[in-house]
TrEMBL record:
InterPro entries: MeTrfase_dom_put (IPR022744), SAM-dependent_MTases_sf (IPR029063)
Protein name: Methyltransferase domain-containing protein
Entry-linked Gene3D superfamilies: Vaccinia Virus protein VP39
A UniProt-annotated Pfam family: Methyltransf_20
Domain Methyltransferase: 1-72
Length: 74
């Protein structure tokens, strides 16, 4: 609904991404859990395409995790 809010998180990079992919398995018949990273820009574009306008963003001190707030405009 217009005026509603969306909180979304991102993980643009992780120092142990390769280790995680090789150590964990996915729900797909035990295959490696390979995650595709999305840049913050890509995440913001997806949110905008869904009818939201980004208001603010916070990033942890290592730049690994992000939390963003957007508001519905359409």
């Amino acid at each position: 609904e217009p005026g509603g809010y969306l909180v979304y998180t991102g993980q643009p990079w992780h120092p142990q991404l390769e280790l995680i992919a090789r150590a964990l398995t996915s729900h797909r018949e035990g295959q490696a859990w390979v995650m595709r990273r999305r840049s913050q820009s890509e995440m913001d574009q997806l949110v905008e395409a869904a009818g939201f306008r980004k208001i603010t963003q916070r990033v942890d001190e290592w730049g690994i995790f992000t939390v963003s707030l957007a508001q519905r405009i359409q």
